[in-house]
């Protein structure tokens, strides 16, 4: 195996372990019974954290790289995925696609929940959760097709040639044409499936964030609501970071895709540049998201019992 696949496997595996560990730690914080936060916010953070755990784990052992050649997009998987039975490999790939699409499809849910908490406080918790996540279910789009055996075998041979992988070294290759007229074309999925769900999801996200910002600024500052307002502002900052970060993170893979469509995609330098961008960036993204969640959760955790007892003893002595 050549240098680039080995580097990809090593780097992505390490990043996957780090992202997995950080998000598991965030999940442990979320299940701490002393955590001072509302049930709706807690559940939304649990859903997103479990999604990041899945992304870190599957991306880490799948180790995917991009390749564009002769108007064909290749997804070449190294790591542990090729040594699994075919059905297990296919299940892992479908799960990975679901989790990746969920990055933008699940983005509106936390901000819808906060909007309802601020502007519709009379709604019950189950009703808020149903309204928020039903939007994500409607937005959900995932189309994954497995091409003919002969076509996949031809693509696997091209992938082995480019990455200098011998026949006895396993690789899992999925491919699709970038030509509209081809029966294996990925363009209808990209333009008529992914793009609408991506656009609508972030449109809802933007509208809700604007309404939340206005609601927080007109919130009455009395003694009882001060603590609640601080919690609302912290959660708003958290959902802003977790919602806008995918826009920045996914810009490189999307740019690589369109460069493959319209640019000189057959050049070897371009192949080298693009080949390990998506898995590495996805795992960095999940790591940063986990750190954002941890930062929010640590501020909500009450002081330890020892600190509380010592402060009470100090107060009693003063009296």
From TrEMBL:
Pfam families, alphabetized = 7TM_GPCR_Str
InterPro entries, alphabetized? 7TM_GPCR_serpentine_rcpt_Str (IPR019428)
Question: What protein does this entry describe?
Answer: G protein-coupled receptor
Q: Which organism is it from?
A: Pristionchus pacificus
Name of the gene encoding the protein in the UniProt record:
WBGene00280780
